């Protein structure tokens, strides 16, 4: 999950540098959603002490 987040963040940064607004906005929104999903899973795993996949 973290790998997808990093991939979309890098894609959004590259698209923003080249000025592709639509692509950058789409990749940034996907990266934001994946980041929050990963963050929630991380917090849950901290409280439960179990590994989540």
Automatic annotation (TrEMBL):
It comes from the Bacteria. Keywords: Cell membrane, Membrane, Transmembrane, Transmembrane helix. Signal peptide: none annotated. InterPro entries: DUF1328. The chain crosses the membrane at residues 7-27, 33-49. It holds the Pfam family DUF1328. NCBIfam families: PRK13682.1-1, PRK13682.1-4. This is DUF1328 domain-containing protein. It comes from Zobellia uliginosa. The lineage of its organism: Bacteria, Pseudomonadati, Bacteroidota, Flavobacteriia, Flavobacteriales.
């Amino acid at each position: 999950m973290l790998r997808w987040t990093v991939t979309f963040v890098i894609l959004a940064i590259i698209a923003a540098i080249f000025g592709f607004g639509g692509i950058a906005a789409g990749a940034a929104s996907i990266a934001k959603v994946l980041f929050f999903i990963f963050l929630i899973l991380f917090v849950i795993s901290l409280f439960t002490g179990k590994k989540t996949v």
